[in-house]
Structure formats: structure tokens, C-alpha cells
Amino acid sequence: MADGQDRVIAGQYRLTSEIGRGGFGIVWRAEDERLHRSVAVKELFLPTYLDAGQLAERRRRSLREARSAARIAHPSAVTVYDVVEHEDSLFLIMELIDGEALNAVVRRDGPLPPRRVAEIGLSVLEALRAAHAAGVVHRDVKPSNVLIGPKRVVLSDFGIATIDGEASLTSSGFVMGAPAYTAPERARGEAAVPASDLWSLGATLFYAVEGKRPYPGANANAVFHAILNGSPEKTRRAGPLAPIIRGLLRMDPADRLTPDQLSTLLRDVAEDRVPVLGAVPPARRRARRARRLAAALPALAALVAAAGFLWPRHPDRAAPAPTAATTPSRLLATLPTGGQVSTLAISGDLLAAGGEDKGVRLWNLQDNQPLPVLRGPVSNIWTTAFSPDGSTLAAGGYDTVVYRWDVATRRPKARLKVGDGISSLSYSRDGRTMAVGTTEDVQLWDAASGKRLRTLRPGGQTSFITAYSRRSWLGVVGPGTVHMLRASGRDTTLGDTGSYPFSLAFDPAGTTVAVGTMNGRITLWNCDTGKRLGTLSTDGTVFAIAFSPDGSTIATGSGKTITLWNAATRERVASWTTPAAVGALAYRQGELISGGYDRTVRIWRV
């Protein structure tokens, strides 16, 4: 039996066999005995040379980065289910992928054709875009982290480099990670940026299509010297991929291809829109496509005619694209946005949405017409909140600043410099106080003067989500523990959520609080008695929770699934899937609004 095999981690995950190991940890195959599924468990090694204080800081950073990694919801990214502590070790619980590493495929089969490499590159690029939108830089894109499965290509080890304690340089002055796939700026000891991942993707594409690394060298020093002072090896097999690879392997991050440019170029190669030696001539391709289209037209016409009877017509609203898993009769409107939606806020007939496009988008819900976009933030927006009287809209994200606008004039108000990444914003019922949950603490601000009133760190935790109840009690949840800060200032601990939290909501009366976590559970507490009322179970991280205006129903968003629950009996009332992961939920009388990772806001009749 391998050392550690058959251990049960955190009372739930039984290790069955070792998949692999490296300098930063061991990856195990395991069985989730609670949810009855196979998972991958990475046991993280913390450096033995650190003192107690450094170990504590490393552990805190690891947990914080794991929460960021778990925000990544994309078919081409390995899903992070949970992070647990067991016997002073950290364990990352992940989706188990049935696939083979790209480097193993190339070693066995030789260099891959350019079109296949372009398809692989598209999948990895989309996974990276989802990661960068969540504020995560991968830092270790390389062939061994690209898994080729029967139906999908997946990029693994999201955030692992940082979770494993990666600094820019080790104490001996060398960059940690795979040297041949390390961007020049990181080889110089500079911080990793999203463009660093694109350089590493370029090096990975080079390896896949050429069967060798772009920068040779007998050891790490020789490779780094080549990266910083030389040019990559010439491509011989890349064909139409050659200019794409060159565009990614540029020395200056600002000169590299952008994600949009790269997506277009890779798709052209993958879909045979770029001439390749031996390819079917364009004229013959066009004729063949025309014949296929003509053959398909009668069936397409019949489908359109049938759709006219199935789908309600709303001339002033965008028609949704039907999918087999959705419930079309619920959908009232689909509103396009400029990026993945992470937060929604409603005040009367005004809807605000924020996310990866760095602006707050507004709609008038009376006619679903868009209003001018509010600009100012320079990073992804994770949270928005209207003041109780609807006069002010606030937003915050990774750039550590709370942005505020006058709703009537759409003009910006004074900004609040918080100092840490912002995960949540909430106003007290009287509108006098704003609570800001950050990666390090909870800050209370005077909403009128913009002065900081107090800084809290309940339970000594980090990475907080906050929400005010109707009673102006402040709910605060850190990694695993829920606190209730009453108006008197007394801190009451309600209990442990069992996993890392991503969402928090009060019912309209302020008597019940619900917390959604990374492991797919929603736990309910009675705020008066502190009694745990029960737990709801879903599949995947619960990114969003919302109570209906009358408090009778709880809506949850987990992966692509929206579920409605009876708040009193905690029974599932309805459930349907959406085309993409749900990032935010908000109720309006008779309607539920969802924000999606497919850059849309959807309005549902409930």
C-alpha cells in the first residue's frame, strides 16, 4: 500500500491510489464518500524551512488563492470543489479528469498536426480567459498541465503555483516552475501577469506542433539565458501556426497577441480558413459547404416554424437560444453584457450588473432598455450595492477601491480606498454605514463622509463576505465560519459551514441567513437563536443565493443550474439549467434575474 493510501481526509475523501507527485505535493485518486463520486486530491507540501509565522502566512495565502481558483467555471478548466485542512496539511479537492497529458501524447505519437494544435490552443485559451476574469494568473502553463480527454481538452493546476507558495524567485535566485515555459518577465524576477500565461501557451503550442521546446538548454540557467537573450528555435512543422507562435513569444508582454486576436487566429487555423499544404482549395470548400447548407434548409425551415409555436414572441426583448436543458417558458428576456457577470443589484426598476468588462451596466426594467455604462474601475467588478434610498450605487473588485456614483446624474462620487481586494459591499438599513468585505478584513465606512469607522477581523480569519440584514445586523462569513455582528457591536458565532464560502444572503425579515460554499452546500441559520436550520445540497460551488421578496423561496446558482427551494420545508421546488455558469442572482417581484458567465443577464418568470 502506498504511504497514505486508504486515508480518509476531512471525514469525506478516501485516498485510493497515487496518480503522481512532484516537489509541491502528491496527487491522489480518491472517493468522495458523501457525494459518491471520484475526485482528485492534491496534498500540498509546505516548505519545511519556514518558521511558524511564515507557515501561517503561507497557509492563509494558499487558502485565499484556492478560493480564487474555485471561481473559475469553464469546461476547459479543472474544477476545484473544495479545500480542506487535515492533520496540519492542506488538501485541494478537484475534478478527476480522464485524460492524458499533452507531453505524453507527443512523446508517444510525435508532433501533432497544426489544426489539432490550434483546437487544443483554443481550449486552453478559453480556460485562461476564465481564470484571468476571476483574477487568477495560472503561472504554470506547460504541456504536462494540458490534459487531452476523449471529449475535451482541459488545463489543470489552476492557481496551484501560487497555492504551492510560488514566489517570483527562490532564495537562491531562480524562478520556480518549468523553465522552458517561463515568460521572460518572470525569468527576470518580475511578477506574473495574464500575458505571461499567453507566452507560456505559445511555448506549449510550439512543443505540440514541433515536438521539442522552443528554447533549448542543458539546465535551467541555460534555458533562462536563451529566453532572455536569444530567439526561439525556428518552426518547421507549424505551417499557419508559425506567426501565431511568434506573436505569443515576444519579449515584451505589451507586444504579444491579445486574447481576442489569438482566439480569431487559432479559430481560423482550427476551422481550415488558413491555407495549409495539401488542404482542399477554398473554392471546393465553399461549394461543398453550399451543398451541405442546401440539403439542410428544409429541416431548418421546419425547425424554425415549430419554434414559433414553442417560444413566446417579445418584439422588444432579445430571444433566448433554446437548449434541451432549459425551461423556455420561464425565460422573459436575455440582456447582453460586455463580459462575464459576477454581481447584480436592483433598486426599484433599475438593474445594475458588474463583472469582467470593468464597467457597471444599467437597465430600466420597465422596458429592459440599456442605460449608459458607468466607468471608472480598472479591474473586474465582484460586488455592487445600491444605498437603501436608491440614490447611490457602489461597486468594488480587485483594484482595492470602492467606486460610487450618484444614480440620478450617473456622476461619480468620492472613491473609498480600501487597500485590499473587495469581495462584498452592503449598506445598513438606514444607509449610514457601508460594510466592505475584503481579502484581509471587514471595514465599516461612514457612507456620507467617506471616513473609515472600524476595521474588523472576526475570528482572526481572512477573505470575508458580508451582508446587512433588515435589522442592520451584519452577517460576516470567512473561510468556514459565520459570524453575526449585532447593532450593539456584539459578535456571535453561528457555526461552521464545512467549506469555503462564496455567497451570503438574509431573508427579507432578517431572521434567517443562508451561506453557500465551495462544496455545493447552502447552510441556513436562525439569527435570533443561532440554531442551524438545515442544509441544502447542490452540485458545484454555490456562487449566488437570493431570497424572494416574501421570503418563501430561496434561489441558488451552482454551476449552470438555478434551483428554487421552499424556505420553510427546504424542499426543492424547481430546477433548470442555463447555457453558462451562473455568477449572480437577484429577485424582483415575480421575476428572478441571473447573471451568467456567457456575458448575459437573463430575466425569468418565477
Automatic annotation (TrEMBL):
InterPro entries: Kinase-like_dom_sf, Prot_kinase_dom, Protein_kinase_ATP_BS, Ser/Thr_kinase_AS, WD40/YVTN_repeat-like_dom_sf, WD40_repeat_CS, WD40_repeat_dom_sf, WD40_rpt. It is an enzyme of class 2 (transferase). Keywords: ATP-binding, Kinase, Membrane, Nucleotide-binding, Repeat, Serine/threonine-protein kinase, Transferase, Transmembrane, Transmembrane helix, WD repeat. WD repeats lie at residues 347-373, 374-415, 503-535, 592-606. The chain crosses the membrane at residues 293-311. Pfam families: Pkinase (PF00069), WD40 (PF00400). GO terms for molecular function: protein serine/threonine kinase activity. Residues 13-277 form the Protein kinase domain. Its EC number is 2.7.11.1. It comes from the Bacteria. The keyword Plastid does not apply. ATP binds at residue 42. PANTHER family: MITOGEN-ACTIVATED PROTEIN KINASE KINASE KINASE 20-RELATED, SERINE_THREONINE-PROTEIN KINASE NEKL-3. This is non-specific serine/threonine protein kinase. It comes from Actinomadura parmotrematis. The lineage of its organism: Bacteria, Bacillati, Actinomycetota, Actinomycetes, Streptosporangiales.
